[in-house]
Amino acid sequence: MRTAIRYRALRAFATSLASIALVGCALSGRHETPVATFVLEGAPAPAALQTASAGLVLKISMPDAAPAYASSQMAYIEQPYRIDYFARNEWADPPSRMLKTLLTQQLSNCGLFRFVFSDSAGVDETLRLDSELVELVQAFDASSSQLRVTIRFDLIDVAQRAILLSETISASEPAARDPYSGVVAANAAVQRVLDQLVARLHQPVASLRSAP
Q: What's domain 37-210's superfamily in CATH?
């Protein structure tokens, strides 16, 4: 009798262990799908243009970001006033950090400045470009989506402590209803913003060069 009871107890215990193992496997399986990571690269940087001999030295400061876009999470909107984030898709780095690299590459090759740098290089800058990522979000509607980006720029004359340019530039690109399409659209939209920035920098930079 005792042997039968002991056998049944052992079998119940073994069954419990098997059940726990199966649940553990199922739970761990939820984390096996890797997170997809994406980058902002914009368009390939153009070849450097010839700059004037009296070119200016520009420092790119680290861009700020609105709180909703300050991390590597990829934001999306499905209803007004609410921001969500994709669970299995994210940026490889906070977008503001990638934006600093893009700005340095773009402005190094636009022909307006003698030297552009983004970190301390033992160089006294003539100008400084401050920026803030105001919005970078994929907005969904019933059948499609669009990627919206807004960036604010301030060009500062360091010696005069004067703002030469203060612009908020926005762009949007259509996208299919999936995260990767949003990434492709984000790269296109950011590049459009950078192109507009270069166009708007011509006038203040030309005025500064021609000043006595």
A: ABC-type transport auxiliary lipoprotein component (3.40.50.10610)
